[in-house]
Amino acid sequence: MRVVEAFRETFQAEPEGVWHAPGRVNLIGEHTDYNDGFVLPFAVPWGVTAAVSPRQDDVVRLRSLQADGVVTLGTLDEAEGWARYVAGVFWALREAGHPVRGADLVVDGDVPQGAGLSSSAALEVAVCVALNDLYGLALDGMGVALAARRAENDFVGMPCGIMDQAASALAQEGRALFMDCRSLATRNVPFDPAAHGLRLLIINTGVRHALADGQYARRRQECENAAKRLGVASLRDVTDLAGALGRLDGDERRRVQHVVTENHRVEALIGLLRAGAVREIGALLNASHLSLRDQFQVSCPELDVAVEASVRGGARGARMTGGGFGGSVITLVPEERVEAVRDSVTAAYAERGWAAPETYPATPSAGARRLA
Ligand code: GAF
């Protein structure tokens, strides 16, 4: 494993172990996690592999095969850029009272760039499962996800929900992960499009619009404001949508419309999967995309064009996946239409002078685990 060779070369020692944590795509349930709602992500075959040894002191030495040099952190506050995601995990575990000292780490990531497939959650979770094992913390998968989310919320400063870290920590091969983000109950739901003559493709727009982080925090705030105005703890608790919409206007009204209907779409999609009606989930994917575009307003032209062109090319349905403002589209395509869908998207992009986006098969993969 090249991460082990790099560890030997960097620290002149064998790593104590090697761990892997994947990125994710979300099948449906977008911008619902921080509203105590439902999500249905699954792990992708790409992620972060970490070779790690514990230390007797509190120093963290860190090398990424995707960046130059070795970062040495005497204190966690010294971390900058990508190293903050790693330092944040040490911080979150120590804050929770776990006896975590320093470590030497080499990390190697292969999540496609710009794809919005949660490479940062993969990095956090890979480090967290390593420290969990090395320091005997006995956290379960959700415990790992919660510590990783705390690192991102309170150390990195990104107010994300629990979906990405939970998917990375708890996903299983061949299954999607249904999660109730209020109770944190999870269920691994079999999802095998190939058994139905279908392919789920990821279309990576390769763009990430600069407003993404600021708009994410704003959406979250709008949802909290709307919940307060409606007198509910969170938008999960809206049971009378028509009544709620009648009491709101403008952006808050749109946000509520999205979140409430999106939760129902997650439940409907689970129902179809349970009935073996995988071919029928396309309409829910399309409806989710329109809602994210028009009500939640987190799409962008590159995502919309990829969705529309893939449906024109014969996809059963398509939607943006993840936070939005760039990243990827997922599209559910009958096997015999895969080439036609790729051609349709490439042509639509070319018409606008955009480079052809990369596409990859999205195979539901295993969650975080120790490799060696
Ligand atoms: C990002 C966040 F990190 C998730 O928590 C989730 O809110 C998602 O956007 C939108 O569904 O990936």
Any descriptors?
372 residues, alpha+beta, Ribosomal Protein S5, domain 2, Alpha-Beta Plaits, four-stranded antiparallel β-sheet, 11 helices, 13 strands, binds 2-deoxy-2-fluoro-alpha-D-galactopyranose
Give a count of the beta strands, DSSP E runs of length 2 or more.
13
Overall body shape: globular
**Name of the CATH first level of the largest domain:** Alpha Beta
CATH architecture of the largest domain: 2-Layer Sandwich
Instruction: Report the mean per-residue pLDDT as an integer.
Output: 97
Distinct small-molecule ligands in the complex: 2-deoxy-2-fluoro-alpha-D-galactopyranose
**Radius of gyration from the alpha-carbon trace, in angstroms:** 21 Å
| Series of secondary-structure elements, N-terminal to C-terminal | HEEEEEHEHHHEEEHHHHHEEHEE
**Helix- and strand-based class?**
alpha+beta
Please tally the helical runs, counting DSSP H or I stretches of 4 or more residues.
11
How many strands, what sense, and barrel or not for the largest sheet? 6 strands, mixed
**Distance linking N and C termini:** 10 Å
Oligomeric composition of the shown chains: single chain
